[in-house]
Amino acid sequence: MKQELLSPAGSFPSLIAAIEAGADAVYFGLQEFNMRARAKNFKISDLPKIAEICAPEKIKKYLTLNTIVYDNEIGKIDKLIREVKKFVDAIICSDIAVMLLCRKYKIPFHVSTQCSVSNSETAGFYKKLGAKRIVLARELNLKQIKEISKIIPVEIFIHGAMCVSVSGRCLMSQFLFNESANRGKCIQPCRRAYEITDSEGNKLKVENNFVLSPKDLCTLPFFEKLKKSGAVAFKIEGRNKEPEYVYTVTKVYRRALDKKLSEKEIKQGLDELKKVYTKGFSSGFYFKSPTSDDFSKVEHSSAEFSKKFIGKINHYYPEIGVGILKINAGSLKISDEVWIIGRTTGIVKHKINSMQMNHKSVEKAEKGEDVGIKLPFCRKGDEIYKILKRKL
Q1: Can you give the pLDDT at residue 11?
Q2: Phi first, then psi: what are they for 354, rounded to 5°?
Q3: Residue range 249-283, pLDDT digits in tens
Q4: Rg of the chain's alpha carbons, rounded to an integer?
Q5: Parallel, antiparallel, or unpaired for β 216-218 and 331-333?
Q6: Angstrom distance (rounded) from CA 80 to CA 85
Q7: Are 166 and 214 in contact (CB under 8 A)?
Q8: From CA 68, how far away is CA 174, in angstroms rounded?
C-alpha cells in the first residue's frame, strides 16, 4: 500500500500550497466542531471549490469534526454530516456519536488522535465500530505503532506542535480562561513563561521558564524508520500555521517519503524547516519519553525567517508579467525576496529584480507609493509579504 503524506489546510492558500508541495491528502475544518476553531477554516459553501481544486491531482480530502459534542448539537451535526458527504473522502472524529452518524450515512471515518488510542484492544474496538483508520496517540514508540498497525491502518504525526497534555486533552485553557481545548478553542497558556512563587513571595529561579511548552516534533532525521513502522499515513500538524509553513514542511517530507535521503540532504531539509515556524525540534516519544531538553526555550517561533505584509496587488498584466502594487506598509527594494499569497494563487516565492514608477526603473518603493513589479503569474487581491531574516 502506498504511504500517504497528509498536510493541513487552514485556508485556501494553505490548501493550494499543500497540493503544490506534493501532499497526497489534506485535512481541514469547518467553522464548527473542529479542534482548530481559531484557524480561518472553511464554510460548507467552500466544499465544492475545495473538491474542484483537489480533483485534478486526485488529492484525498479529510474533514475534521473532532471536538466533543453535546446533546443539543446532535441534530446540527447530523445535518452537517449529510451535507458534506459528497465532498469529502473521510471524516476525522473523536466523539462516538459522530462515528455512529458516519456509519449511519455510510461515510468513512478516521479516529482522531483525541481518542488517545494506544493499544491493540482499543484499536480493535474502533475497527468493529467501523473505523477505516486510526490517528494514533502521539505518546507511542515505534514498536507500539508496529503492533497496532497489524490490527487496523494507522496514521502518525511526523512534524509540528506537541502538547504537554496526553493527546492534547488539556483543561488548562478551560480553567484559566473558559476556552476549552476540547472544543478547539485552546489559547495555549502553556506556551507562556512561568515563575514559581511561594506563599511568602519568594521566587524560584529555573533554568527554563517555558516549563509547559514542548518543542515541535521533527522526524526528518529518522524518517526512514517511520516508513517501516507500519503506518499508512504521515501527518503534518499545522491548521493554524501560515501557507509558507505548509508549503515548506510538505515539500521537505515529500522528498523524504519518495526516497531515502543522504545525510547531506537531511541537513538541507532541516535547514529549510528552521526557516518557518518552529519552537525547536524534538523526536517526541518515538524512541523514549521526552526529557527537559524537549521543552522549548522561546514563547513564540524561533524560525530563522519571518514575513512582513507590504501590500496587495491592485492589477496584474499577464501579457507582460507585471503586477501593480500599492505599498501599504514598510518598503520594497530590488533583491528583496517576497511571498505572494492568494486564495487562488496559493503561495509563490519570488525575488524582486525589476520595479518601475511612472515608466522609470526604480530601486526602491516606499509606503503609500504605487509601483509596477515584474512578478510570476498572480491575481488582483493577492498579498505581498517581504521575507525577513530574524535576529535570534
Answers
A1: 94
A2: -155, 125
A3: 999 999 999 999 999 999 999 999 999 988 888 88
A4: 22
A5: unpaired
A6: 9
A7: no
A8: 14
Q: How many CA atoms, within 13 angstroms, populate the side-chain half-sphere of residue 220?
A: 29
Q: Which residues contact 332 (CB under 8 A, 6 or more apart)?
A: 310, 325, 338, 352, 355, 364, 365, 371, 373, 384, 386
Helices 12-21 and 243-258, axial angle in degrees (round to 10) = 20
User: Rounded distance, CA 168 to CA 157, Å?
Assistant: 13
Q: Give the pLDDT score at 103.
A: 97
Question: Between 133 and 216, where is the model more confident?
Answer: 133
Q: How many CB atoms lie within 10 A of CB 358?
A: 8
pTM: 0.86
> Which residues, in sequence order, are bridge partners of residue 387?
307
**Residue for grid cell 446533546:** 71
**What structural domains does the chain harbor?**
4-294 (3.20.20.70), 305-389 (2.40.30.10)
Alpha-carbon distance of 366 to 328, in angstroms, equals 9
Contact partners, residue 237, CB within 8 Å, separation at least 6: 8, 157, 159, 160, 161, 217
pLDDT tens for each residue of 137-185: 999 999 999 999 999 999 999 999 877 666 666 666 666 667 666 666 6
